[in-house]
Design brief:
- The protein is mostly beta strands.
- It is 8% helix and 36% strand.
- The strands form 6 sheets. Strands 1-24-23-22 form a 4-stranded antiparallel β-sheet, with no helix packed on it. A 4-stranded antiparallel β-sheet has the order 2-3-4-5, with no helix packed on it. A 4-stranded antiparallel β-sheet has the order 6-7-8-9, with no helix packed on it.
- The chain is globular, with a radius of gyration of 22 Å.
């Protein structure tokens, strides 16, 4: 029901509006009358039930409120935004060099470097990408020993063309940053086969504390075929070595027909990936359909259920499944109804934001805010909405000097400055 009410109500959504819609219907628009099905008491009870879901949506009503000042109060830390970059398109991924310079990818297919004086330099040597719908240049991640080897990784929508068809897939390139140029480029992963779909690429990258590279691949909108099968790479979290080879202890290395890089399956479209510094545990967030966005702990070989179980429904309002739980399929740590469209995520380190230390920050693209997940051990015990309504928030990262940075699809990258 909570997912069902996440829509525009053409004929109003008051108690009486809902009563009239259920009782009398709108014949010309395909809505039948339930006058002979329910009594008036039952119809009012149904209207009241729907209203509880509508009430739940009101906490996101701030999207209609214009931002009037560069000051964002919260429960424990108040924030001022410092503009680092403006006038760009979509900054999909960010990473910080050891000297504090910021690298960011532009979804359109460009890579930039920003120094401490906010001067921007384009980096050459970026692979050709498909830039369409959800496709483009996506995440960037430094090698754990970048200070020694200058190696980095880029995820993107690789492209193939025939005479009359355009195909694409999730790919990862390993390269060496030399000045303002990428060199020694090597593709270390391609999700095969290439498909005509231009959505659900996944593409988030994250190293763990042991030097393994985790990355996400979305289901490419083929949810009936891909996520529950181990013989394709789609709808999965993967794990590889830094050179693209497969760790010997990956869970499906010895499974006949399985893609050896798969670490988890039954995922829909994971857009965030972060290692918890205090435990070394990897976490991910992913888009559900209408409702049912999730935060999960990444556990070796586990099935996260999509599309057999879900807390969401299809975009046309039709249920995808009537199950939210099943034996052998993991439950999310939290799920969001309505969908918030989660993007990049990071655990807060250091003492720059003492009240947030150890908490998980996830961006919301749909509602344009930063979602604080309050962490105790490895459990989410509360949430807080921060920096509300500044636009589709795509990524969040933390710089070497401890500041949080967010990218907003209106063309900005901001630094979060604590103020009293």
């Amino acid at each position: 029901m909570d997912a069902f009410v996440d829509r525009k109500w053409k004929h109003g959504n008051s108690r009486e509006d809902l009563f009239n819609a259920i009782k009398h219907g709108y014949k010309d628009e395909g809505m039948p009358s339930f006058d002979t099905t329910f009594t008036d008491v039952e119809t009012y009870e149904l209207a009241e039930y729907i209203l509880t879901g509508i009430e739940n949506l009101k906490k996101y009503s701030f999207t209609n409120e214009p931002v009037k000042q560069n000051y964002f109060p919260s429960k424990e830390i108040n924030i001022r935004l410092d503009t680092i970059v403006k006038g760009i398109t979509v900054a999909w991924g960010m990473a910080f060099l050891p000297n504090g310079d910021l690298l960011f990818t532009e979804k359109s297919g460009k890579l930039f470097r920003v120094n401490k004086n906010k001067e921007i330099q384009e980096i050459s040597g970026v692979p050709e990408v498909l830039y369409s719908q959800q496709a483009g240049l996506m995440d960037i991640e430094l090698h754990p020993k970048f200070a020694e080897n200058n190696v980095l990784y880029i995820s993107y929508s690789a492209i193939k063309k025939t005479s009359d068809t355009l195909f694409s897939t999730t790919a990862i390139m390993r390269a060496v940053l030399k000045g303002d140029e990428l060199t020694q480029q090597k593709i270390i992963f391609e999700a095969l086969p290439y498909l005509t779909s231009k959505v659900h690429y996944g593409c988030r990258l994250e190293f763990d504390g042991k030097g393994f590279l985790y990355f996400t691949v979305g289901d490419r909108n083929f949810y009936k075929e891909h996520p529950q099968s181990l013989n394709n790479p789609f709808g999965k979290v993967h794990r590889i070595k830094d050179d693209g080879s497969i760790p010997a202890d990956n869970p499906f290395v010895k499974t006949k027909g399985a893609i050896a890089s798969i670490y988890t399956y039954g995922n829909r479209n994971p857009q965030g990936l972060a290692m918890q510094p205090s435990t070394g545990i990897m976490w991910e967030d992913e888009h559900g359909p209408r409702g049912g966005d999730e935060v999960n702990i990444v556990q070796k070989g586990m099935n996260y259920g999509w599309p057999v179980i879900s807390y969401g429904i299809d975009y046309n309002g039709v249920p995808i499944t009537n199950k939210t739980k099943m034996e052998g399929m993991l439950q999310p740590e939290i799920y969001w109804i309505p969908s918030i469209g989660p993007g990049g995520m990071i655990f807060v380190k250091g003492d720059r934001y003492p009240a947030w230390k150890g908490d998980l920050m996830a961006t919301s693209m749909r509602f344009g805010y930063l979602n604080r997940c309050i962490i105790k051990g490895s459990k989410i015990v509360g949430q807080e909405m921060l920096i509300k309504n500044i636009g589709r928030m795509r990524d969040v990262q933390q710089s070497p000097d401890g500041y949080l940075y967010i990218s907003v699809e209106k063309g900005y990258i901001f630094r979060l400055v604590p103020v009293k």
